[in-house]
Amino acid sequence: MTWDISIASPGRINLIGEHTDYNDGFVLPAAIDKHIFLNLRKNGTKNRCTIKSEGFDTTFVADLYNLNHGTEGWHDYVLGVLKELQLLSKGLKGFDCAIHTNVPVGSGMSSSAALECGLAYGLNALFDLGLDKWQLIHLCQRAEHNFVGTKCGIMDQFASMMGKDGHSMLLDCKNLDYEYIPTKLDPYVILMLNTNVSHNLATSAYNMRREESASGLRIISEHFGVVNSFRSITRDMVEECAGQLGDVRYRRCSYVLEENQRVLNAASAINEGDMVSLGQLLYESHHGQREKYEVSCPELDFLVDMSKTEQNILGARMVGGGFGGCTLNIIHKSGVKKFVDEASWAYKHKFGIELSHFLTVPSQGTSRIN
Ligand code: GLA
Question: Which residues is 50 bridged to in the sheet?
Fold first, then answer.
């Protein structure tokens, strides 16, 4: 049986700007050269959708007239997208879909956004629904909020959909302006080390961080009578409200402002080819995530600490929501093998877990390949 269309939808890295997207801040992500591939065809029914995942070796059937929660985690990303598509268009009908992926799942590479974006993009093309990329990005984010229950920001869906070969993207999450930044790091490369842990408090802790920073912001903006946005407040204002905020909200709000500035500095460093400064900003970012936003974990900290002992590495930090997943390392290409061997041994010795790794480059966003 043949397919009507095929889509490749990438995961993403984020060079810097973590937990800033839902705080009206800046991020600097890129799509990567690892994808979820989706083959799609109309099946002639009004409502029957079959989705086969080679990775999970299962097929599940969704009924467009009755979209309930699925039995496995990844079903909800699919169902959420179908539900949100239906709200925007009457044109969606039954289809068959086969999926395979080489994006490591649960590793902070946004395999879920890749799936959402690939499916939304593919169905939009298959049924000629006429939605533009920004509508698709927003509907994928809503799928995650409304169906999956993670109150994520816009970064992952944006990066997967809008990625461009050889470029990172400086996105202003307040007004959604963005700029492609040529990102050639040679002789350095981007090495991802996968802790292969994903602590299961991630969703609840993520939503809690969101609340903590939002309530901190509310206190500050009410105190000064300014617009309720991290873009209206300064470090001095945070300092002045330290007592009212209490320790946790104080650290969350300080982190957001500092991380935003680091993103802008990192974009300038890349533009100027100043890889040393970029690396330093990555380390500072990780320190903030560890001490102030508290989204790291011992496995990530271990790998970042270890990278500091390796002279071929300019900087490293955790990537994505945190509590597991990958570290991103800017490393001289000549030093990759030695560092991977040493880190793998030390990590296994310390945690009893195999480390995995891959090199990646900024790549094209969700696209039709057939
Ligand atoms: C997850 C979310 C993103 C973003 C990151 C943290 O990947 O989906 O929206 O908030 O965490 O930067």
Answer: 61, 96
